[in-house]
Design brief:
Number of helices: 5
Helix content: 10-25%
Radius of gyration: 15 Å
Shape: globular
Distance between the termini: 46 Å
Structural class: alpha/beta
Length: 186
């Protein structure tokens, strides 16, 4: 799977609690002011066996998983295997997609993925609709809750202010979390 980054221990920046966050590479949307434009290219150099990589990591003490990108659903077969593996260890799995739920449902294997995750945030990012919500980049995106027991948790989480975290991995600095839309004062 083309993976750009894996961080275990992201705290409240991309989902409630302490999370394992996985970013895929490759996206066809090219949304204006994308939070991760560096992940738009499908980078074959970053093709790794994600499940073997995760088996070698310490994943204890984590509350859930967030999968973002790029566009995770561009790698449907690999995403399905990843979600299958993660769903054995984690009940709370959140996926971000620039595609709509309606279009994703038409993809072979998508409904199986939806049956194993707790939340999908769908739809392309539209900069003008960025209202600095914690969970979604812009208000046109939908927050689809597939496991009702997480509804209150995610609704409460979305009311909090956005949070960004900084991580240093292999000498490189990474900012994690949705960026606040800058206010322009006249």
């Amino acid at each position: 799977m083309n993976i750009a980054l894996i961080i275990a221990g992201v705290n409240e920046a991309l989902g409630p609690g302490k999370r394992l966050c996985i970013w895929t590479s490759g996206c066809l949307k090219h949304c204006y002011n994308c939070a991760t434009p560096e992940l738009q290219a499908l980078d074959k150099i970053k093709d790794i066996d994600i499940i073997e990589k995760l088996k070698s990591m310490n994943l204890t003490g984590l509350d859930g998983v967030t999968i973002s990108g790029g566009e995770p659903f561009l790698q449907m077969k690999e995403l399905s295997s990843l979600v299958e593996f993660l769903s054995v260890k984690f009940d709370d799995i959140l996926i971000y997609s620039g595609m709509t739920y309606e279009s994703l449902k038409l993809l072979d294997g998508a409904n199986d993925i939806f049956s194993k995750i707790s939340v999908l945030v769908d739809g392309e990012y539209i900069d003008e609709l960025n209202q600095n919500e914690k969970l979604r980049g812009s208000t046109n995106q939908n927050i689809l809750i597939f496991k009702e027991k997480y509804r209150l948790k995610y609704e409460s989480y979305n009311k909090l202010p956005r949070k960004q975290e900084i991580f240093q991995i292999d000498g490189k600095i990474f900012g994690v979390g949705l960026k606040n839309k800058e206010k322009n004062y006249e």
